[in-house]
Amino acid sequence: MIYALAFCLVATSVVAKEPYYYKSPPPPLKSPPPPSLSPPPPYHYSSPPPPEKSPPPPYVYKSPPPPLKSPPPPYHYSSPPPPKKSPPPPYVYKSPPPPLKSPPPPYHYSSPPPPKKSPPPPIPLLFTSTSKEVSPSSLCL
Questions:
Q1: What pLDDT sits at residue 110?
Q2: How far apart are CA 8 and CA 2, in angstroms?
Q3: Which string of b and e fits 105-134 if b means at least 16 CB within 10 Å?
Q4: Closest Cα to residue 140, out of 125, 119, 127, 130?
Q5: 74-97 in b/e burial notation, b at 16+ Cβ within 10 A?
Q6: Smaller CB count within 10 Å for the chain: N or C?
Q7: Can you give the pTM of this predicted structure?
Q8: How far apart are CA 10 and CA 16, in angstroms?
Q9: Rounded to whole angstroms, how far apart are CA atoms 96 and 98?
């Protein structure tokens, strides 16, 4: 059986290499009957049966529902408020008030009182033969 199959394959491959020429069949011996004079029946088109399931309706886009919370408004910068206290006025020098008490009178020096005791008696002066004047300051030792 396998040998027969192999033989067929080899035979077809050898024949397949030669070109194939078509030979028309011999003409029939009898001529065909003449066509009938009646026209052919008209062709009636019959549509195919409807599909079992109807096609889905066309897709309609639905937007998503709005968010539950609205987004915050955009941030707008506002400058800081002006200071509550105005700047201090420029410094004006004021002289100090006059003293409540008048100043004391100027100091006057008074000499010390004289001593109560009398000074000691003067020391006697000694004189030599040559008379020289001796000053009292030279006697102080």
A1: 81
A2: 10
A3: eeeeeeeeeeeeeeeeeeeeeeeeeeeeee
A4: 125
A5: eeeeeeeeeeeeeeeeeeeeeeee
A6: C
A7: 0.13
A8: 10
A9: 6
